[in-house]
Amino acid sequence: MGDLYFEKIRGGLIVSCQALEDEPLHGGDTMAKMALAADQGGAIGIRANSVHDITSIKRTTRLPIIGIIKRDYDDSGVYITPTLREVRELMDAGVDVIALDATRSPRPHGETLEELVAYMKERGQRVMADISTMEEALYAESIGVDCISTTLSGYTPYSPQQKEPDFKLLQEAVRSIRIPVIGEGRINTPEQAAHCLKLGAHAVVVGSAITRPKLITERFAVAVREASDGEAR
Ligand SMILES: CC(=O)N[C@H](C=O)[C@@H](O)[C@H](O)[C@H](O)COP(=O)(O)O
């Protein structure tokens, strides 16, 4: 029998509920309320950052959780679940899947992706590899992760920098990889989310377009300003 988790999320929308310290919605039970709204709106899963948010989301909804801990270490650009310390914290909190940076960038303290994946798999923990290129996707699959997500395309210097989701990477990954491929990153409209599924994504993760009102407001504000400048001319 296949993994029930992947059956449950097949063809569904996962909502990323995150607000960092410098964001207006950070703190309290705000992300739990976001997760409840996502649940009521038809999401089939949540992606969340930090033990605090994960614990409060678990009190509010029973949706399965992809957990991460974003932590900056001085010597590294790797910030999504960078080291064993964050992996252990997430395993103690209990999440359905741990997502981690699976790019080529060196990790803090000389730790390696391979070691972290082996640690989790030995303990029966599902792992999602956040990748930015096909090479990283293939490597992550070869070391035994359970699924990959296109999360980091556009966030490494060697991946395409674009406003749109990386449909090309998604499509190539779906063609070449046997484990589930999740579409994630800059999916800003329902049409783009649907397109990811048409390309063969197992599920999609949408964050900012649903749970970051400051960014959503900025998009409207820019459009309105440009329209009113056009009128004035
Ligand atoms: C690059 C990075 O740090 N991505 C983070 C990963 O957890 C989140 O900040 C994103 O919100 C998430 O990936 C969903 O993407 P978007 O918000 O574009 O829908």
UniProtKB/TrEMBL annotation:
Keywords assigned by UniProt, alphabetized: Carbohydrate metabolism, Isomerase
Reaction(s) the record says it catalyses: an N-acyl-D-glucosamine 6-phosphate = an N-acyl-D-mannosamine 6-phosphate
InterPro entries: Aldolase_TIM, NanE, RibuloseP-bd_barrel
Record's protein name: Putative N-acetylmannosamine-6-phosphate 2-epimerase
Family: Belongs to the NanE family.
Gene name as annotated: nanE
Function: Converts N-acetylmannosamine-6-phosphate (ManNAc-6-P) to N-acetylglucosamine-6-phosphate (GlcNAc-6-P).
Biological pathway: Amino-sugar metabolism; N-acetylneuraminate degradation; D-fructose 6-phosphate from N-acetylneuraminate: step 3/5
Top-tier EC class: isomerase
One MF annotation (Gene Ontology) recorded for this entry: N-acylglucosamine-6-phosphate 2-epimerase activity
